[in-house]
Specification:
The radius of gyration is 21 Å and the shape is elongated. The protein has 13 helices and 11 strands. With 308 residues, it is of the alpha/beta class. The structure holds S-adenosylmethionine. S-adenosylmethionine (SAM) binds next to helix 6, helix 8, helix 9 and strand 2.
Length: 308
């Protein structure tokens, strides 16, 4: 489980009520927890963490309107929306699907960074890098081209797990990630020639035309709803014959949805259309689970698209 964000209300009594409420919530006494949170937000009306938790509890209790109201208050109380109330509102159908708040991704992964590798590799059995590696090798073998790439860009590079899998296949790696905490971990690996704290789309926009041979995104497009925009920019940045390789979580339908883990899931047909719209050719699209959730493999896809 990713860590849970807590933003103090600045009021000791309200913070205490919140802590008790969380204990009760974890013990399953949702009604009593909601009662305490109501008290906390009465004491501190701009207590974003309490509003957000209240929203979650109201949702669990089936009180959808009250949940929506609480998530709206959480976002008003923290305009950066570090809890990701917007995602909850999208999931509840109160708002149309859109990109997730950048501050939510940043604070999630800044908190996660110190124990990310252990959590992903040991608890979630993360398989993204090896899936990408095998898929890229297969595409290169089918094209009868060597699987060596002078310059690669790792989008949402995190701590560098994908770069580690490709280390022997790449001359120089550039890593781009929204989270300074993850970038620090990536820097410590020594795997990257260059690292940048940026949104992946903005980071790609700063790169020159035909300046990369490979663009990777391991378990990072799950935080991006509009894959077409990123793929279009990747196409511009890639040399002819260059590859864009990424994993996603998926669902049986078409289009893009938000799963209950607050990550996007992209349908297979959506991805095919996205690659075509971006001017890339889908060379490999395979059902493959990148990681587990509650000890169950999450449905996923591994995709490799080529710039012709
Ligand atoms: C689950 S981690 C995967 C890290 C790494 N690619 C790997 O395979 O281990 C997702 C990473 O994507 C980053 N991320 C999410 N959305 C992003 C965005 N829009 N732009 C840049 N990085 C993003 C997060 O900060 C996080 O480090």
């Amino acid at each position: 489980m990713p860590p849970r964000l807590f933003l103090t209300s600045g009021d000791l009594l309200a913070d205490r009520r919140f802590e008790f409420a969380r204990d009760l919530q974890l013990k399953g006494d949702l009604v009593a927890a909601a009662d305490l949170l109501d008290q906390a937000v009465e004491l501190a009306p701009n207590f974003a963490s309490a509003w957000f938790t209240l929203g979650e509890i109201r949702e669990r209790l089936g009180e959808t309107d009250a949940a929506i109201a609480a998530f709206c208050r959480a976002r008003e109380a923290d305009a950066l929306d570090r809890h990701g109330a917007t995602l909850k509102l999208m999931r509840l159908g109160a708002e149309p699907l859109a990109e997730m708040p950048k501050a939510y991704v940043q604070s999630l992964f800044d908190q996660y960074a110190p124990r990310f590798d252990q959590a992903l590799l040991h608890h979630l059995d993360y398989r993204g890098p090896e899936l990408l590696f095998k898929a890229v090798l297969a595409v290169r073998a089918a094209a009868r081209k060597p699987a060596f790439f002078d310059r690669a860009i790792d989008l949402g590079c995190g701590t560098g797990l994908a770069a580690a899998a490709f280390a022997r296949q790449v001359g120089a790696f550039t890593g781009i990630d929204l989270s300074p905490g993850m970038i620090e971990r990536a820097r410590a690996t020594g795997l990257y020639a260059e690292l940048e704290v940026a949104d992946m789309l903005e980071g790609l926009r700063d790169r020159g035309d035909a300046s990369a041979d490979l663009v990777l995104a391991g378990d990072a497009m799950v935080y991006v709803s509009d894959v077409t925009a990123v793929a279009s920019e990747a196409r511009r940045v890639l040399v002819p014959g260059g590859l864009l390789a990424f994993t996603v979580e998926t669902h049986a339908g078409d289009g893009v949805i938000i799963g209950h883990g607050l990550r996007y899931a992209h349908g297979a047909e959506y991805l095919r259309r996205a690659m075509t719209a971006a001017g890339l050719v889908m060379a490999h699209l395979e059902a493959a689970s990148p990681r587990n959730e509650d000890n169950t493999p999450v449905p996923g896809l591994v995709a490799v698209a080529t710039k012709t």
